[in-house]
Amino acid sequence: MAKSKPLTPSDIIIFGGMGDLAIRKILPALFHRFIGGQFSGKGKVILIGRNSLKRNHYIEEIKNKCEEYVGKESFKPNIWNKFAGKILYIKMEAEIHAEYSEISNILAKTKVKGRVFYLATPSEIFGIICHNLKNNNLITQYSRVVLEKPLGKNLKSFKKINNDVLDCFNEKQIYRIDHYLGKETVQNLMIIRFANNIFAEVWNKHSIEHVQITVSETLGVGNRLGYFDKAGALRDMVQNHLLQLLCLVAMEPPNAVDADSIRDEKLKVLKALKPFSQEDIKKYCVRGQYATYRKESGKKRSNTETFVALKLMLDNWRWSGVPFYLKTGKCLNKRYSEIVLQFKPVPHHIFPGQSKDPETNKLIIRLQPDESVKLEMVTKIPGPGGYRLKRVYLNLSLADVFGEQTSGAYERLLMDVVRGNQTLFMRSDEVEAAWRWVDSIIEGWKKMRKLPLLYKAGSRGPRSALMLMKKDRRQWHETQ
Fold first, then answer.
1. Catalytic residue among 179, 241, 348, 349
2. Could you tell me which of 388, 408, 238 has the C-alpha nearest to residue 307?
3. Which of 36, 38, 115, 163 qualifies as a cystine partner to 143, CB 3.0-4.6 A?
4. Strand locations in 131-281, DSSP E?
5. How does pLDDT run across 348-377, given as a tens digit for each residue?
6. Which fold has domain 181-470?
7. Is residue 349 among the annotated active site residues?
């Protein structure tokens, strides 16, 4: 268990408090930090929902998820009882101004300075909630608001939502969360790049042949159908998760490790993305849908994509001419998230029997499952008989090296909100730049008026995604 210094006591108010995200991610993360001694002060966890629930019902549901999260061996009933004592539930309609009185009464009794409002609701009502908080005098200088993705459905809707929130909170109080940025290996990208000279010197177009970023899921949309059918994979995954990973891979060294310095460099990457023309959409964008989705959604001609593969370029000095391949999909053959940097081959092949296109070095950064960093190298097979070559891995497994010292993404991000550290959160101009680029794809799809390509559940996705790489004489890295 990662032990950390206790933080300033804060009340955490979760709108959508009995929703899937809160039950599966947010509350177990808070419980883990309670065990670790960071969230053990006077602050309360106040859940906001629309349904009438008895305390024993919602406490039991939360307990089951928390026990699953920390593991039965680590789950201590006495610690759980203390944590459960911090949890309160309020039935209310978040859109109605008059119903905020009970929140006011509870916060007045807790008498702690910190207030974190976590909006785990559809983004369409973020502005309404924030204005109700403001008009009920619930926002103080110590208040912060966490906004879940995706923020809007395009650039226009994002601007409307963002401006509504900014009417109530200043930019320093707003935490636009992307849980991928809380993953240990994602943060390790900065260390790998900027603290190790062997990588710092070769992290550019002179040494790297191409980059792949993949988020592959084996499950379908499940109980997220209502949300996902309106969003699709491009908005749900590419606009935030994959573009944020791209930024960390491609950005220049920041002047300092602080929020604005890092976000300034990420913004430059997003602005360097070459927008997709209509011809680019046809050549470099694959849009797919797993075969049973239409039955699940009840739509005979569903236009919602569950798979996206893209080839994109950055117009800047470091990466000019280096293609970045992004891929994400549901109901695929394997569950994993990883970044692969394919290095260029040696300029001249000297070993007898070596193929004209030998395997070259790869840096494979695995985000999930089993966070790790692997460097693929070529070495000689021991024994007589000349030079027989084989690929091998130098493998850094975070679990093997650090054991239980690692913590979950939501744990880290929630505690960063409490301490006021915005480094791992997106700034307004970042989200705006991401939407501006994604909008070029959305508009291109509308003009094409084609349904997504169907692919079999449990496969590697549409054949066109394989051809996207094959026509460049490349192939997607197959995770082991």
1. 241
2. 238
3. 115
4. 143-147, 174-176, 208-216
5. 777 776 666 556 789 999 988 888 888 888
6. Dihydrodipicolinate Reductase; domain 2 (3.30.360)
7. no
